[in-house]
Amino acid sequence: MPDGLVVVDKDAGWTSHDVVAKLRGILRTKKVGHSGTLDPDATGILLVGVGRVTRLLRFLTVLPKTYTGEVVFGVSTSTLDSSGEVTATHVMAVTLDDVRRAAVRLTGDILQIPPMVSAKQVGGQRLHDLARQGIEVDREPAAVTVHRFDVAPTDDPLVYRIEVECSSGTYIRSLAADLGTALGGGAHLRNLRRTAIGSFSVTESRTIEQITDDSILPPSAALRDYPSVVATRELLGSGKVLARGHLHVAGDGPWAIVDEAGELLAVYEPYRDDMVKPAVLIPR
């Protein structure tokens, strides 16, 4: 059974589940999962774990993301993007300075209300399932961080290109709609593309048609955004709780534990006092 990580460049029209199902056939294993949903209309990076790396996906889900897209001012939609029905039109005239000032106000630590078309669960039900039934429910705002929000003009005075670096859980369509509201009207998002997840970028991604067994990165690569420590299987045993000093770890963790050949052995995380414990053990 193959083990590792595949960096997929998803085409528009594919759901994240579609990608997983297709790769199960290509890679001849049922043990495949992804680290975070990408909208069907969006393109770009989807990190897919294969074999034992499916147990590591939660460490990839929380990595920061980078997106590009276009904000269309003057038109609001039911889904906050171009796939929805037009709900309102607005007479607007915006300048680059206007949009950049509004983007600055949406940069940093902000509170964001999840859109009804998101996969977030409320009361045990996914919001997009409720939205398809015509049901709208109250949503608690969530704290997210927008690290960078760049804006550039296009040939259309009501369309602006954006590039956003943000924390996991940030909704770019909501940022687009909030830009429109901040400028006295409305807006929606189109042509969303995820260009990076942590250190994984589109430059190393593969389309579905390009993926073979050779596209699978080793398990250790899945944890490359985390500090790594060299240890032996004998030290870790069957999952020992260890003193920090025994593993020579520093910082807040988690830590990828590798052997001298670079093979991933485990992921450790802080425990009580000055101890660390295994979050995931990778068997031989």
Descriptive report:
With 284 residues, the chain is α+β, with helices and mostly antiparallel strands. It has three domains: 4-63 and 198-222, 2-Layer Sandwich (Pseudouridine synthase); 65-197, Pseudouridine synthase, CATH 3.30.2350.10; 228-281, Archaeosine Trna-guanine Transglycosylase, Chain: A, domain 4, CATH 2.30.130. Helices cover 19% and strands 35% of the residues. The chain is built from eight helices and 18 strands. The strands form four sheets. Strands 1, 2, 3, 4, 7, 10, 11, 12 and 13 form a nine-stranded mixed beta sheet that branches. The longest helix has 11 residues, at 16-26. The radius of gyration is 21 Å and the shape is elongated. The two termini are 13 Å apart. The mean pLDDT is 92.
